Amino acid sequence: LWTVPSERVAFMPSAAEGMAWLARGLDWRAGDNVVTTNLEFPSVAYAWRDLRARGVEVRLVEHRDWIVEEEDLLAAVDQRTRVVAVSQVSFYSGQNLRVEVLARGLQGTETLLAVDATHAAGAVVVRADLCDLCISSAYKWLLATHGVAPCYLSARAEQQLQASSYGWRN
């Protein structure tokens, strides 16, 4: 189901918390940006909205007839893009983004790839090993309970993050 080294998987309470944890934990500077889509599920979209007050641009790539092209997402990336944040499978359209195309397009950059796999995990293959953050709530196709979200964090992302909250779940 998930292709990733098991020692890099932890659990969080939800996909929304995982995305927010990434958004809070990076050292953002005015002029940085994050790239996402205008069809994002709130767990992805809301994580970035408060960054605007810190001078961070949130770039919303537009869909075309309910399809978001991977090439359009990559075209929105520049030297100041810190994160590309997407849902692997869109809750609006059911589109399964090609994570491998995004990962390949970001190779050689400092941009992190953050993927919410909630609508994918258990239904289609999730290539967490291609992501810097891959998180999935477990109450959809994984048929588990609320409050459990498998989370993969790459070594590269881990080096860039600072703790933003403390407690027994982190």
Walkthrough of the structure:
α4 (99-106) links the parallel β4 (81-87) and β5 (112-116). The protein is of the alpha/beta class and 170 residues long. It is 23% helix and 20% strand. The protein is built from five helices and seven strands, in the order βαβαβαβαβββα. The chain has helices at residues 15-25, 42-49, 70-75, 99-106, 155-160, and strands spanning 9-12, 33-37, 57-61, 81-87, 112-116, 133-135, 149-153. It has a seven-stranded mixed sheet, with helices on both faces. The longest helix is centred in the N-terminal third of the chain and has 11 residues, at 15-25. The model has no long low-confidence stretch (mean pLDDT 87).
The residue ranges in which pLDDT falls below 50 over 5 or more consecutive positions are none
Number of helices, where a helix is a run of at least 4 consecutive DSSP H or I residues: 5
Radius of gyration: 15 Å
Span between termini: 24 Å
Largest sheet: 7 strands, mixed
Helix/sheet category: alpha/beta
The level of helicity is: 10-25%
Share in β-strands: 15-25%
Number of strands: 7
- Topology order in helix (H) and strand (E) letters: EHEHEHEHEEEH
Which word captures the global form? globular
- What is the arithmetic mean of pLDDT? 87
